[in-house]
Amino acid sequence: MTRAPLTAALGDFVANLRYEDIPGTAVAIAKQGIADCVGVMLAGSAEPAVAAVRSGFAPDTAGGGSSICFGPARAPAHVAAWVNGTAAHVLDYDDVALKGSHPSAVLVPAILAEAEAVGASGRDMLRAYAAGFETWGELISRDSGNYQRKGWHPTGVFGAVGAAAACAALRGATAQEAAHALGIAASQASGVMANLGFMTKPMHAGKAAACGLLAARFAAAGLTAAPNAIEHEQGYLGALSPAGDVDRERAPSLPPARWRLTEQGLAIKQYPVCYRAHRAIDAMLGLVRDRGLDAEAVKAITVRFSPSHSVILKNHRPRTAIDAKFSIEFALACALVAGRVGLRDLVDEFVLSEPIQRLVPRVSIEIEAEEMSGTSGYAPYDLVRVETTAGEVIESEHVRHARGDPQAPLSADALWTKFEDCALWSGLQLDARALFDKLNTLEHCRSAVELLR
C-alpha cells in the first residue's frame, strides 16, 4: 500500500512557509508563547537541574555565539538550546498545547539559540515558531491513543522534530534539507513518563531543542535520512505507537488549509505545577474566595477528575518541591492555605510545613471515567468538594477551562505580572519591561541580538 508522503510534505511546508502567509492571530499567539517562555526560562535559570546540565556541559561552554538564559554566559548554540530548554521547563510553568505537550519550552530555546548564531530577524523567528508548532501539531494529531499513558512524554518525543522544523525554517532550508532534518530528529526523539517528578523530566525539553537544532544543521551539511522516516511502518510514528493506533496514511492537513495555532492556541499557565492540577486549583481558589474557607475548619477534600490525571498527578505524599509539582494533594492544600499557588510556594520548606502536611492526607481522589476525545485525557470538567469540621459539604463549580486556557485567557496585565514575577524570581539584572515589550513586538526586531541589548 502506498503511504502518504508525509515526510516530504512536511519538508515542503517548512521550506516554503513565508512570514506573510501567517495569519495575524497566529502571529499574536506565537509572540505570546515566546514571551511567556522567556519569562519562565528566566525564572528557572538557577534551578538545580539547570545547574547540573550547565555543569555537565562545562567543558563545552568556554565560548560560543548564543546566550544562556539572557545572562552574560554564552555557549555554542546547541548547548545554549539544551540549557535554556531545561530552564524553560524546570518549573512546570511553561505553556501547554497539542494534546498535553509543552511546545514553547522546546521551540523557543532552539529558535533563540540558532537565531543568534545566524543573525535571524524577529519575523524569521516567528516564522520558525509557526513551522515548528504546525509540524508538531500535524504529527501528534495522528494517534487516537494517549501518548502519556503509553509512557511517552510528548514534549520530548515530538519536540525534537518540531524544533528541527523550526530551525530548518530559520536557516532557509530547501524542502529536501528540511525533510532530512525531520528524519534525523526522529532518530533522536525520546522522553519517558517515568521521569516526571524528577530532574530528568525538564531536560527532555532541553534535549529536544538541542537535537532539533543539530538535526537542521546536519541536514544543511549534507547528512541524509530516510525519505519516509516519519511515516514508514518502522519509522517515527509507528515506533511511538506499537499497537497501531496511529494513522500513517491520511494526507497531511497543513497551512494554509488549517492553522493549529489559531484553532487550538496556547494555554498559558497561571500556576507553576503540572497543568492537570490547574482546573482543580481554580475550583479550590473559587471556594476560598466565595465561601471564605479556613484551612483549620476543613475535615476532608475530594477532587473529581479523569483517570489520566490520576496517573500523572502521582505524588500523593510530597516531600519536595519537585514532588509537589505532580501532587494534587499539595496543589489543593496550597490553594487553601496560601490562597494562591505561586513560585514562592513551590519550595521544599513550604511543602514540608505543618499546615500543608496536615492537609495532604485529607485529600482523596474520585475518578470521572469519561475522558473527552481529542484531549490528552481530560474529563468534561473537574470539581472539588470540601467537608468542614462542622459537617457542612461544599462543592465547587464545574471547572471546564483553567485560567489561561484559550477559552479563559489571561489578560494583558496578568501576562505582564507573570513575566515580571519570573524576572524578579530569577535574580538576573535585566530590564524586564523592555525585554517583555521587545518580545511582544518581535516582528519589528531586526536581529535576535537586539533582544539581549
Oligomer: single chain
Number of strands: 6
Biggest β-sheet: count, sense, barrel?
4 strands, mixed
State the helix count.
20
CATH architecture of the largest domain: Orthogonal Bundle
Radius of gyration: 21 Å
Tally of discrete structural domains = 2
Provide the residue-averaged pLDDT: 94
Helix-strand category: mainly alpha
How is the largest sheet built, in terms of strand order?
4-3-5-6
From the spread of the alpha carbons, the general shape counts as globular
The SSE order reads: HHHEEHHHHHHHHHHEHHHHHEEEHH
- Uncertain segments: none
Query: End-to-end span in angstroms?
Result: 55 Å
Classify the fold: give the CATH topology of the largest domain: 2-methylcitrate dehydratase PrpD
Top-tier CATH class of the largest domain? Mainly Alpha
As a percent range, the share of strand residues is 5-15%
Helix proportion: 40-55%
CATH superfamily of the largest domain: 2-methylcitrate dehydratase PrpD
Q: How would you describe this structure to a colleague?
A:
GO terms for molecular function: lyase activity. With 453 residues, the chain is mainly alpha-helical. It folds into two domains: 6-270 and 417-452, Orthogonal Bundle (2-methylcitrate dehydratase PrpD), CATH 1.10.4100; 275-395, 60s Ribosomal Protein L30, Chain: A (2-Layer Sandwich). The protein contains 20 helices and six strands. The strands form two sheets. Strands 4-3-5-6 form a four-stranded mixed beta sheet. The protein has a two-stranded antiparallel sheet with strand order 1-2. A hairpin with a 6-residue loop joins β1 and β2. α5 runs antiparallel to α6 (122-140) and α5 (103-118) crosses α10. The longest helix is centred in the N-terminal third of the chain and has 21 residues, at 24-44. It is globular and about 70 Å long.
